[in-house]
Amino acid sequence: MINLSNEHLSVSLNGPVLSCVLNRPDSLNAFSDQMVAGLQDALHEAERNEDIKVIVLSGAGRSFSAGGDVKNMGKATAKEMYEHLGALNKLILMIKDLAKPVVAVVHGYAAGAGFNLALACDQIIAAEESKFVLSFAQVGLVSDGGGHYFLAKILGPYRAKELLFKAEPVPAETALKWGLVNRVFPLSDLEEGAMDYALSLAKGPVQALGMMKKLVDQSDQSDLATILEQERLVQTMMAQTNDHKEGIQAFKDKRKPVFAGK
Q1: Are 173 and 185 in contact (CB under 8 A)?
Q2: Domain of 245, in residue numbers
Q3: Contact 103, 56 (CB under 8 A)
Q4: Which pTM was predicted?
């Protein structure tokens, strides 16, 4: 694998798991153009490399990400902001379009667009002490990075608007109850727990998982008849895969299947 790390992003391959660590700890991993571009490159690599089964996104230092760089707010021209948000939008869509699971591992704060970056992922694993907050209203902005879309989809419009209007932090346990995160671990166990979770996904039938991801993500924009037809087509494809044949044989042999993602 080519070296995908840069000054603001650390990328490594742990077996079938591509680990991407936001690496601006002094600014709580606030986004930079270099970080966003690096994440785009990492997702391109994950898309083309069959050995990569799962992507894990985490943050260095005290927090996952503070989102936009508050210190530089007000300094960018309208053109610069428009272009930066265009790159962020491309990143969010790449995460959603990637036919492989993407897991966000959150500790400390996931704030602003950092929260929305986590929401764009397929699963969120959080530390017990972590907090999620959309702080845009505090600086006179609207959410970017898909916050309006993700929160309305997960929580419904009324609670989504409350989070956006009030900009109050949501503790991890509350986020778990609301369905914003999948698993919560003590901070000391977070890294190990998240990697075990990612590896368990990597051992699954990755092609089928990728198709499940797309069908779920499309479900709220399609009617039942459309989803049924998409399931029909995808299921016909999946029935021809080696993973399906392995799953059937393992069932007959009364053993765990060994999937290859093919």
Answers
A1: no
A2: 206-253
A3: yes
A4: 0.93
